[in-house]
Structures are given as C-alpha cells and as structure tokens.
C-alpha cells in the first residue's frame, strides 16, 4: 500500500523505546523525515542511531514546560514544520485510586495531558495552513475498560481522548485528522514492569501473571511492537484521510465492548 508518507515531517514523543520507538521506526521506513524525543538525549540518540535514515534526536520530558517549548522550537527549526505529531507520554506508576497525593495527580496531568496539548496547539497552525496534518495520541485500553491497579492512567488518558474528539471536528475541514490508538497488552518493557507489579501485589509469579493475561486475549498472545506501529503508520498516511475522531484498538480482541 502506498502511504504517501515520503518526505512528510514527523515528531514522535516518548520514542527511545517501546511503542514510540516502533512508531518512529515505522514512519522512517515509509520515507518520513522523523524527529524523535525522549526524557534523555542519550536515549533519543541511541534510538535515532538504531533507526538510521537521518532521524533527528531531541530531549523532552513532557512534565517540564520549558523542555516542551524548546522541543517545538528546535524541531520546527530543523524541519521547517511538523506534519505528523505522535503524542506518546510515559505511563504513570501503577497503583490504586486511593491514596494518590495531590502533587502526583498534578504532575501526571501536566505530563500526560496539559503539555501534550501545548505541543499540539503550537504545531496546529502550520498543519491547518498546509491543509494536511495528523495528530495521533497513544492512549490505553484502560480508556475503554479501566485496568485494575492503573488508577492514574485510567483517570487521565480519557481527557486526551475527549480533547482529541473535540479538536477533530474543529480541524477536519482543514485536512487535519486527530485520532487515538489504544494498545492492549503489547510486549514492551512497560508491560514487563506492570506484570511484575501485578505479581508482587497478588503474590504470584510473573510467569503466572503473564500466562493468565494471555489467556484473556482471544489471539492467545501479547502483541508485537511492530504490529502496533503499523496501525499508527496507517493513521498517519494519506489513505486514512477520512478517519478522524476515532479510537483504533490494537489489542488482539481483548476488549469485548462494542463501543
């Protein structure tokens, strides 16, 4: 399938590893000019070097507004603009809904919502002017069906969905699409962390936790990063120009809800 991504300028957040890295790699393989960012320059450079294809590396902790603004300035200076924006923030620590401090709620909301919107707001005028733009938010299946012991994620990520759905209707006539991708259990370091936390909380082995989790997925396995990234690449492509305001699930059939 011809994606039409050759020469398109992309910025992928949280891309030193895992889902963000997979998306950055997938876009680069389709000929996009990719910039990627993560919390450390070392991590970003290592990811960019691994992908090759002249990928540019930047630093950005989405919890720090000065780094957020510097990222937008530096990337637009290097590329002349951004056509594809992938909003991917790190997952918050696992835990129950009870007992989360107000400071933790505020910090997570800033990093997982406020500053992601800040980046998008600064890049949207250029997309609208060029009559082409793609904003893709990496969320969580917890938006559809809350995940036990992930209270912060369950509470905050829906805000990004509500913002994106509202924005989608505002910019659709300008050739800009706004969508979200909800990963199920994809084989990443983050998933290993969550399985380990679940094992400790329930007194089971990590192997037993993973086995039980796979049993709840109709596909019978964890997803691969490349499979998730392929969905993001499609949403970024010209072929997806009539898809906007949607949540695309990549979960092996795990979520049984029809909505």
UniProtKB/TrEMBL annotation:
InterPro entries reported in the protein's UniProt record: NAD(P)-bd_dom_sf, SDR, SDR_fam
Entry protein name: SDR family oxidoreductase
Species per Swiss-Prot/TrEMBL record: Microvirga tunisiensis
Family: Belongs to the short-chain dehydrogenases/reductases (SDR) family.
A Pfam family: adh_short_C2
